[in-house]
Design brief:
The chain has one helix and 25 strands. With 318 residues, it is an all-beta fold. The chain has one domain: TolB, C-terminal domain (Neuraminidase, 6 Propeller). Strands 19-20-21-22-1-25-24-23 form an eight-stranded mixed sheet, with no helix packed on it. Strands 14, 15, 16, 17 and 18 form a five-stranded antiparallel sheet that branches. A hairpin with a 4-residue loop joins strand 2 and strand 3.
Length: 318
Amino acid sequence: MQQFSTEVLFRPASEELRFLPEGPYPCGPGGMSWVSIQHGPDSTAGAIHLFDFTTGSNATYELPGRPGFAFPTDQSGTFIVGCERQVGLFNVSSREWSPMPEELESDIAGTILNDGVCFSGGLVFGAKDLEFKENKAGLYLWRRSDGAFIRLRSDQICSNGKVIFGTGDHLTLLDIDTPTKCVVRYQLNVAEGTVSEAEVVLDLNSREDFPDGMIATPGGGSVMIAFYNPHDRDCGQCCQFSLKTGETEAVWITRKAPRVTCPQLIQVGGAVKLVLTTAVEGMDSEQLRRSSNSGCLFIGETSFDDVPDTPIFEIPRE
């Protein structure tokens, strides 16, 4: 097993922006987007951020609610965003928010949209119960072919990391509902708008921390999972697991930041780096003092020569 250290890439200026960073994603040459889901325990505000690896600068664009995911589109400066209970387009230059008319989860109380994945056939994304108690949040498909929103499941608690393999209408979806501490596999039929019964691929219940964001490695033989540790620990982890054997192949350590939320592999300066987001969510003042890098974005070396597919969202043209 390989072990890699990481270093702080970016420290957000305020505790509000360090509360719950997630979703790093390549965005243009030398750039990366990420989201701050909410700016404090009682906040309903969030933002998209654009980080420049060349200058180390970060630009913040406030959203009209809490984002679960944001992906760049084929229109410069415009992102497809899951915000509160709607999916829509947000332009960082004009600050214009153009939601699709459907309000999701309208029959469920106390949920908002959460993590997602972009693929050629559309989007797959989940929701979360804000109290992390009930199996009531949805798992959704937005189908590009007809613009339909389809609820695939309605029994999630906190729907997080997602990976899609394959092309066409018959795909494999890997999914994490964080409190279960499992990665499950579905067969996703896009044309029919259905998923098969869940099959457990990785059972992580022997760990004290919780699986959060997830990506595939180049080639798709393994997955990399960020682990959110709610306990008072010195460091956090992102781990790479073989999908064939379940063995841990590599570990990345985030010092003084135990709550790792999302991983992403990004080309930086000709090398493939791992970027990790971390959070301060739920920490008291003493733990914040000890875990002083929490809420920072980290970067680490990898042994990869290329990056996995990170598609941009193609805006439908009428």
